[in-house]
Amino acid sequence: MTGGETGLHSADAKQFLRSADRYLIDGDELDFGEFKVHVLHTPGHTPGSVCFVIANHAFVGDTILAGGIGRQMPETDLRRQMMSIGTKLLRLPPSTALYPGHGPATSLERELAQNPIFRSAGART
Predict the structure, then answer these.
(1) Is 2 among the domain residues?
(2) Is 18 inside any structural domain?
(3) Which domain CATH number covers 75?
(4) Which one, of 44, 45, 62, 57, lies nearest residue 108 by Cα?
(5) Domain of 94?
């Protein structure tokens, strides 16, 4: 519709009617002029869930919501989602702003203090 390039993780390819222009993998760096976008593969909500990190901002989709995590769907693997949070997102600086796919923005610092899910994901104290 917009003519923009589409991208997704190959683990989610079967969920879409057309193929992506680009398949993303963990550690990819996308260059948008002055912005460098780092891709984190965070499986759990879907097998190919990814988060995008730009400097001190993370677009986390349904991996994390303010005070919780994204809803469980048939393809959701809660154990993998918790591992993704613990091994990928909790390694970001606590001051990182988080922008979920639904609901209000939050911060890693706030979620570390208030989100009970983070205790199960191996949160730092």
Answers:
(1) no
(2) yes
(3) 3.60.15.10
(4) 57
(5) 7-120
Conformation bin of residue 113: beta by default, left when phi > 0, alpha when psi is -120 to 50: alpha
Q: Considering its fold, how many domains does the chain have in total?
A: 1
Look at residue 58 and tell me if it is in a domain: yes
Task: Residue 57: count other Cβ atoms within 10 Å of its Cβ.
Answer: 17
Residue 96: CB atoms within 10 A of its CB come to 19
Q: At residue 26, what is the residue type?
A: D
At 74, which amino acid appears? P
Nearest to 41 by CA among 22, 19, 24, 54: 24
Question: Which residues, in sequence order, are bridge partners of residue 58?
Answer: 53, 98
| pTM score of the predicted model | 0.87
Instruction: Convert the pLDDT of each residue in 47-67 to its tens digit.
Output: 889 999 999 999 999 999 999
